[in-house]
Amino acid sequence: MRLVGAALRSLLFLLWLTVTVVPYAVAVLLLSLAIGGQRLYWATTGWLRLAIGGARWICGVRWRVQGLEHLPRGPRDAVVLAAKHQSVWETFALPVLMPHPLAFVFKRELLRIPFFGWAMGRLDMIHIDRSRGAEAWARVAARGRRLAAEGVWVIMFPEGTRIARGQRGHYKTGAARLAIETGLAIVPIAATSARCWPRKSFLLHPGVVDVSIGAPIASAGRAADELMAEVERWIEAEMRRLDPEAYA
Among 60, 102, 116, 183, which residue has the fewest nearby CB atoms (within 10 Å)? Predict the structure, then answer.
């Protein structure tokens, strides 16, 4: 019965996402004709608040955050965020939880998603064609430098895709390379979202997602692989602290 209840609540939540994203995306597309930059970004996060709020009130997915004191305070103090990626939840929640605008680095195929992808395409993000290799990286570096100068925080998922609960993916060096290229510190983030919202699933379970933000790690004078190895060690150790039963 518990599984049936979770399935019914998840279906209701999916319906909530569908009926809210269409009018909100249309509003964003219209707004983008008049405003842009950070004003459009913050307007867009309104739907993300509806999304994680819906997950909370419909499915019982709550959250708690620690380590916010590690984030820079100045409006122009930029960093690169490197986050654990277990589910859709953190892509919805992190722009809401962070005090500064974020620019995600993501595959351009997401822009084809009706309404959601169309609205996302109007924001100042970094969408790449992974098949283009060095050209794709050059785009990330160039736009990352510009966004950093504007005080926007670039966020990347080093494992590249959603990873099952209790598992470790291959940590790519892109976030570390960008931090070194821009001279920015890199902030590691652990999140136990798969505890409530499993990878590649819309069957949500009630519980608490723990988000832990680590202290910034300086990039000056570092090699990309060595810097990313430090980020990986912190994230994976923190994941085991936050969700020990998943790693038993």
Answer: 183
Q: Tokens in use for 246? A: 């998943």
Structural domain for 149, as ranges = 2-247
| C-alpha distance from residue 177 to each of 211, 231, 233 (Å) | 24, 12, 17
Tell me the β-bridge partners of 210: 64
Copy the structure tokens of residue 10: 């998840």
Long-range Cβ contacts of 127-132 (<8 Å, 24+ apart): none
* Dist CA 29 CA 213 (whole Å): 32
Give dist(CA 105, CA 140) in Å, integer. Answer: 8
pLDDT tens readout for residues 171-182: 999 899 999 988
How remote is the C-alpha of 127 from its chain's centroid? 14
Contact at 8 Å (CB) between 190 and 64? no
Q: What is the pLDDT of residues 213-246, one digit of tens each?
A: 999 999 999 999 999 999 999 999 999 999 999 9
| Axis crossing angle, helix 37-59 with helix 2-31, rounded to the nearest 10 | 160
Q: What CATH number does residue 137 fall under?
A: 3.40.1130
* Number of domains present in the structure of the chain: 1
